[in-house]
Amino acid sequence: MKNVIAIDGPGGAGKSTIAKLLAERLNYIHLDTGAMYRALTLAAIKNNIDFDQKNKLVKLAKSIDITFDENGEIFLNGENVTEEIRTAEVNSHVSQIALIKGVREILVEKQQQLAQNNMVVMDGRDITTVVLPEAEYKFFLTASLEERAKRRYQEIKSKDNEAYFEKIKKSIARRDKLDSERKHSPLKKAEDAILVDTTNLSIDQVLDQMITIIEGDSK
Ligand code: DC
Hints:
Cytidylate kinase; binds 2'-deoxycytidine-5'-monophosphate; five-stranded parallel sheet; Rossmann fold; three-stranded antiparallel sheet; globular; Cytidylate_kin; alpha/beta
């Protein structure tokens, strides 16, 4: 699948930041699939749907409209929810929604359609393994739990002084566990994905490594 780049990895590994910058450099569209699971979680909260009511959640996934604009901002039924999908409440429920097979089928289909019609950098948990296994380039970005917690802490601390490092670390570890041990499309590295450990690398260094691989191939 030419002109399609797939990136997976755990939360806080830098996927979305890197995917966005990579898309800018290549003039591709960036699609953050985690944002789609988050938008659905937000819709469930707004509609007072319990997170154990699987059928209702699948129905909701079918009925809502999730779109992106050219800047990567995300819209739920036409409303810009880019900020709202990052709240602690959404954080604490999104992995539960992502466990549901029917929900995944609907979102995966949307993601595959988007990749058919665009030049994309798509990031998530199952992009290299399930959504776009035929992508031209596949990367698995990771970093130590400590480093990922540090990054989230820095990000949140700037908005919320009461963010505590240990609490964040625990929450990331909990999501890692749910994402990688779930039955349907668990987070795992595709055998042929290129592993990039970002623990001791700056954003620019990660980007350079990836661009070198991509541009090296086209020479
Ligand atoms: O990358 P993120 O933190 O925004 O992802 C939010 C949640 O969505 C995360 O717990 C795992 C889930 N997710 C998924 O299951 N599959 C994807 N392709 C993307 C995200």
